[in-house]
What does this fold into?
Amino acid sequence: MSTSTGPVIEAFGLRKLYEGRVAIDNLTLEVHRGEVFGFLGPNGGGKTTSVKMLLGLVAPTKGTARVLGAPIGNVQARAKLGFLPEHFRYHEWLTGREMLRFHGRLYQMPARLLNARIDELLTRVDLLDAADRKIREYSKGMMQRVGLAQALLNGPDLVFLDEPTSGLDPLGRLLVRNVIGELRQQGTTVFLNSHLLSEVEISCDRVAFVKGGQIVREVAWREQSPILEVEIQMKPINSALLKSLDVFGSDIFSNNGMVRLRVPDEEVLPLMTRWLVNQGVMVYQIRASRKSLETMFLEVMGQDHRPG
Amino acid sequence: MRGILTMVHLTLQEARRRRLLLSALIFGLAFLSLFATGFHFIHRDLMAHEVLPFQRKLILSSVMMAGFYAVNFLMVMTAVLVPLDTLSGEISSGVIQTVAAKPLHRFEIILGKWIGFSLILALYLGLMAGGLVLVGKVVGGVTLLRIGTGVSLMGLEGTLLLTLSIAGGTRLTTIANGVTVLGLYGLAFIGGWMEQIGTLLGNTTTRYVGIVASLFVPSESLWQLAAYHMQPPLMRDLNLTPFSPASVPSGYMILWAIGYTLAVLSWALWQFHKRNL
It folds into this structure.
């Protein structure tokens, strides 16, 4: 089983073909204990297939992975996993409470502990008053919330949430966001599959972008913070000056009296301004803005990407 | 092991919650009431016409066999149709994903469902066969022979078809599975009749074709064997009714059917183990 400090997910070159079509290719990643990991990509990009492979629901065509220190599909490891699927469907002839009791029994939870946990989670997802109604009478949002409770029944070390807010209204989304925050505080690792960038932006420590069945970029979102983009209106601009600016940032570009570059954080701005003034440059305007995840997503996906 | 028990419990809970057991009970009682009514009037007429006791017993036994034939058919339909959707439906809807992601082996899911549905089928067969025996005894004072053996063979027939239905659900859609399993039952049914007719006409080729069909799906042979054991010797030896087999399936057919059921169940476990969910 996993150590307390090692990665909870290690995937090496996972590949899945469905009738010759590549769903995911060469998936290599590490997810560390206690982090909220965002898995981003367009619909049909292979996100759900990746989660299913890591859960042992789908056999990889190639590659290996370890989840909680055990090979994928290991039954003992699954005792510490939680999973909310994208298409959350349950035995709809059961009540919400009965459904949770059934899943708790599959985790082999003792009855008393299970009953207490069910009440606690139903309260957390605001479904205690609907606990004894049949699931077929639930709205989509209620189904998703009871599904979230199901995913957390066993107090998992690692929980996979596949599009956990797709059926929720703004209040429901806030609830999920808060639950993810609580999980992070408890040290639970969260693997969040989503194409709702705002959710990922708020919740995740690290994100990976999936395109065409491959991870094309990984960003330590919370640690590094999104990159700061700076626009400086100044005069004069020459090639020597532009070259010298690379001590402050990267991706330097000049056009029509405007210089654009990327800097690591706000602390660079006064230093850079002072340096420019000392070089005899007239600085008329400095504008700094953080690059949103959406901008990054569009950049990564490129112009050729079609709406999903 | 606890995973299997949890799945058995869920299967029984589903049968109860979806009113399967209630429907079976209501229509089972309706069937038995109708049978008892018919049986009563036949018995009354036989008593009124001063038929010899052995003739009366033969006629009432024939009616009892007709009742068992109907029960066998109902049980076959129950065995095929009730578990038809249990895997294919849960796979296509995605319900199975959260179950299979839990700490249990996939074989526990299949075995739990198989045991659960087998218990439901046994309950149904017990109710219907027990009801028929009770009607025969109380209304007409007649009892068939070796009821336990006959009903056990019918139970094996039902279990075999139920196993086919569950196994089909691991690979096929619900509709395709239903068509396939009923098609297999149809092959067995016509094969069984070809064997009987071929024997009566002395046509060896037809008889062997029937036997091959019975080996392919041995369900009908089990019914023929059950019918052979349950009816009075005079009735079966003289081929007095359609339920008197002219060609009695070998006792080895029971071993074949048990092996066949276990092989199909093993195939289902393997298919479900390796399939993507």
In short: Chain A is about 35% helix and 30% strand. The two ends of chain A are 38 Å apart (CA to CA). The CA atoms of residues 53 and 59 of chain A lie 6 Å apart. Chain A has a mean pLDDT of 89.
